[in-house]
Specification:
Strand 4 and strand 5 form a beta hairpin. Strands 1-2 form a two-stranded antiparallel ribbon. It is built from 14 helices and eight strands. It is mainly alpha-helical and 436 residues long. The termini are far apart.
Length: 436
């Protein structure tokens, strides 16, 4: 393989592994804040016992996420030196803001949650939970700012082959920042909710910590249902943004080759780049045009209107996007069924639902990964959209052999880290909540 492909594989592997942990951190932090808010409002100490258990799980997730994030960032200077040189003036501000304004807040107040329960007041303990949740969301915001700038760059000019910042706020609130931020944060909350739902289901199936499990399941189910349903309008807004600012990506997602009005929405198909057609397509006529503008007469650009060397790889983002949507609909259906059972007071005894909730814990994680693949591979061949191609962003002094060695090394280390994380999480869940 050539160094560009190897460097892409390495970065995809490291960021894909790292991305397991931030959504769960954000989701659990928000749920812990809700639980401690209920404790503050009602005065019921049982909520504090609940929070204590989830805080310890959050700490394990947070530490692992930090460790995997550090190695990911080093690659900017090793494998992607040309890219770092080009975007350094842009990326410096959001990455510094993430470290100073978000990460430090998150880690400091997480320490108070872990070690200050009996040393600070209830209100301060609740405030610590608020700051942890705020810190995780702010951290995600600044990272999304940096990544969104690559998707829809704004607020800069190019001087001597480098992108230099001219308008900080235009760069921060570039066209894709807010749609991607809300879509991603809601997915993170959903990840935390379905994780909590699955753990509670496990306890109910094993008939252990019953009151803790029932209360956790009720809270998690509400948040899971609301966040899963919210993904429909938030995903729709994000799709409109993609249609406006990255039409080649939309055409890739929809397997659309010919520019046309009354463009159909593709439900199923297999895109063929060589034949320039989507085989076995099942389409809803006019629905794509209508969804992105409210009119069937809206013209949607097809792939044939773009230079062939600027097409993304078709099948990977296409299938990732459609599978992400299918899994999202599944999560809506599962949580809606749970709400129906809850309303009819049959939730805690329905074995089928509890088993599905338990085995569905990985589904939001897979959905997150699919969304990331669709967004990032759908941007190719550009690392900064329409400005810097991926093949021009690599370090010119790192040979392929060294990249292969680092891929193997990272694979071994990450496998050990993942096994250790699973073992510790399993151990803590098996032990259960203290005093419940």
């Amino acid at each position: 393989m050539d160094p560009v492909t190897l460097a892409r594989v390495q970065f995809a592997g490291t960021i894909g592994f790292h991305y397991i942990f931030p959504p769960l951190s954000i989701g659990l932090a928000c749920l812990i804040f809700i639980i401690l808010s209920l404790q503050l409002i009602t005065g019921n100490e049982f909520y504090r016992v609940m929070a204590r258990f989830w805080i310890k799980l959050l700490a394990l997730v947070f530490v692992t996420g930090v460790a995997t994030g550090i190695t990911m960032e080093f690659q900017f200077g090793t494998n992607w030196a040309s890219y770092s040189r080009f975007v350094g003036d842009i990326f410096g501000a959001p990455l510094a803001a993430e470290g100073i304004l978000a990460f430090s807040m998150e880690s400091t107040f997480l320490g108070l949650l872990l070690f200050g329960e009996n040393k600070i007041s209830r209100r301060m303990y609740w405030f610590s939970a608020l700051m942890v949740a705020t810190g995780t969301v702010l951290s995600a915001f600044w990272i999304i700012v940096a990544n969104s700038w690559q998707q829809t760059p704004a607020g800069f000019h190019i001087v001597n082959g480098r992108a230099e910042l001219t308008d900080f706020w235009s760069a921060v609130f570039n066209p894709s920042t807010l749609p991607r931020f809300f879509h991603t944060i809601d997915a993170a909350v959903m990840t935390g909710a379905f994780f909590m739902l699955g753990v509670a289901a496990l306890y109910l199936l094993k008939k252990r910590h019953m009151e803790f499990a029932k209360c956790s399941m009720k809270i998690a189910l509400w948040i899971a249902f609301v966040s899963a349903v919210l993904q429909l309008p938030l995903g729709h807004l994000h799709a409109i943004q993609v249609a406006d600012t990255q039409p080649v990506k939309l055409a890739t997602f929809e397997g659309l080759f010919e520019t046309q009005k009354n463009a159909p929405l593709l439900l199923f198909g297999v895109p063929d780049a060589e034949a320039k057609e989507t085989r076995m397509g099942i389409r809803v006529p006019g629905l794509l045009s209508f969804l992105i503008s409210g009119s069937r007469d809206t013209v949607v650009k097809g792939l044939n209107d773009f230079p062939r060397d600027e097409w993304p790889p078709l099948k990977l983002p296409f299938f990732s996007f459609h599978l992400m949507f299918i899994l999202g609909v599944y999560l809506i259906g599962l949580s809606a069924w749970g709400m129906f059972l809850l309303k009819n007071k049959k939730l805690n005894g329905n074995i089928l639902f509890l088993k599905l909730a338990l085995f569905s814990v990985p589904v939001p994680f897979v959905t997150n990964q699919l969304g990331w693949i669709a967004a990032e591979v759908g941007r190719q061949p550009w690392v900064v959209m329409n400005i810097l191609k991926t093949k021009d962003a690599i370090s010119t002094t790192v040979p392929a052999g060294q990249i292969v060695f680092s891929i193997l090394m990272f694979s071994v280390v990450y496998l050990l880290v993942f096994c250790a994380w699973i073992y510790l999480m399993k151990l803590k869940i098996k032990h259960g909540p203290e005093g419940a």
